Automatic annotation (TrEMBL):
HAMAP family referenced in this protein's UniProt entry, alphabetically: Asp_tRNA_synth_type1
Cited InterPro entries: Aa-tRNA-synt_II, aa-tRNA-synth_II, aa-tRNA-synth_II/BPL/LPL, Asp-tRNA-ligase_1, Asp-tRNA-ligase_1_N, Asp/Asn-tRNA-synth_IIb, AspRS_core, GAD-like_sf
Organism this protein belongs to: Alteromonas salexigens
UniProt family annotation: Belongs to the class-II aminoacyl-tRNA synthetase family. Type 1 subfamily.
One Pfam family this sequence matches: tRNA-synt_2
One function term, GO molecular function aspect: aspartate-tRNA ligase activity
Record key words, sorted: Aminoacyl-tRNA synthetase, ATP-binding, Cytoplasm, Ligase, Nucleotide-binding, Protein biosynthesis
Ranges of residues in domain Aminoacyl-transfer RNA synthetases class-II family profile: 138-553
Catalysed reaction, written as an equation: tRNA(Asx) + L-aspartate + ATP = L-aspartyl-tRNA(Asx) + AMP + diphosphate
Enzyme class: ligase
Residue positions binding ATP: R217, D218, E219, Q226, E480, G532, L533, D534, R535
Subunit (UniProt): Homodimer.
Protein name (record): Aspartate--tRNA(Asp/Asn) ligase
Subcellular location: Cytoplasm
Amino acid sequence: MRTDYCGNIDSSYVGQEVTLCGWVNKRRDLGGVIFIDLRDREGIVQVVFDPDLPDVLEVANTLRSEFCVKLSGKVRARPEGQINKDMRTGEIEIFGTALEVINKSDVLPLDWNQENSEEQRLRYRYLDLRRPVMSQRLQFRAKVTAAVRRYLEDDGFLDIETPILTKATPEGARDYLVPSRTHKGEFFALPQSPQLFKQLLMMSGMDRYYQIVKCFRDEDLRADRQPEFTQIDLETTFLDADGVMAITEGMIRNLFKTMLDVDLGDFPRMTYADAMRRYGSDKPDLRNPLELVDVADLLKDVEFKVFSGPANDDKGRVAVIRVPGGASLSRKQLDEYTKFVGIYGAKGMAWLKVNDTAAGQDGLQSPILKFLSADITDALLERSGAQDGDILLFGADNANVVTEALGALRLKVGEDFDLLEGEWKPLWVVDFPMFEEADGALHALHHPFTAPRDMTAEELKADPVNALSDAYDMVLNGVELGGGSVRIHDQAMQSAVFSILGINEEEAENKFGFLLDALRFGAPPHAGLAFGLDRLVMLMTGASSIRDVMAFPKTTTAACPLTSAPSPANPQQLEDLAIATVKKSS
């Protein structure tokens, strides 16, 4: 029906006849001459209709926004002074010689000239996706997946599908269950990831697997979470952590260079312990120069119990953040920061303004200054690197509370003071703890198939609390792009991990029997990693939410306004599945 896309028409087409299809983006009547901006996936081009062709002009006069049309015309250069340098097609326009209205449009329920609610945008998603910014994001996403496929396939990876109807995988979230009609009372689970199947593929000799795959998790949502999301999933045999990291780092560097012409350079590595100590996060944003500085040893003997208590407690922590120029903060602003850290369990936030270092104690300002000797304040200023005009913000409490609260405060202050440096700051975080303690029990920090780092099964059982996992996370600008690990490939180690996690033999056989069986038949060493495709595209396009890089996402309540899903099931379907719904009592 057409000879080209609207956005492709440029000065090289001058003098040619073209036929285009698309939507009326805008219509303007300038005293008998009608201009429209015609839009399709590739962009917008200006079309002119004038009285020399009255039949065509008559049809053009009926056009309104979002009418779907087909037109033909001759490409001509725009007059001098009317070139639009902001448009790819800004040097030309089309003199319309034929026009057909394919379909009219009702008045739009969305106003493209102002912000629409997310509920409205998702309710009329097919209209929202016509907006150039949304169209461009989805096109960008398609190019990202194509580039990923090319890179991995050139490196010997095979695209292999894994089941959607399966047993639950232990990813820590609730499963979406699918009832079975043929096995009444029994359920499939939608996969939270292809974890076990990709390990089985390695045990099957496939050597290098990848898949751009849907995953499902029934969890509370936020900007970077959806009930269904997409992973770039990969697994390899006979490669260690360094080998997997080299492949995937190369893939991301290639992707940024291909798509954005950005050279990310070599990714630095940082241990989990250092990341938590210096930045209060296992996914630190290295664009932010602020760091957490430990000062407990300087404050053990002060009379101020808020400091000396945690400073003398093995499970406590006292740390400061130095904020350049922060001495200008008002008491109201400091009170707001105090409320902010309270969200993370902090009982308060002490502060120390550094007005004039040359004046000693007289150049400092703080409600707690009376508890601090000159020797201590001198030591605090030296360790933190404080300069005139700075402020020190203190955290003193249980170590986990201080780390989480100051880690969040670091991000907020960095944004408030516009401290971010550079556009892209990637890194690897490595040497994660194997387990974390909660409710008096140990839990796998990643998943129970992650191998420990440089330990035998006996050594792991003897000291699980201090064990490190052979795991790695790729982080970019404070966002975890992906994570992976070397997997357990022998029965003794897998049994040791299950034992530490309190999973008995019967439970292990029930949940993972097929995997345990596979470990008995010459299972090779294997390792892998999974990237969040939605997060990756969100970062690369500058979108604020993964919902803005997905075609048909759900709301924060896991609902679809477009299709009204979820919705009640047909009673006959429920009967076939032997399911009865129960109304909750009020």
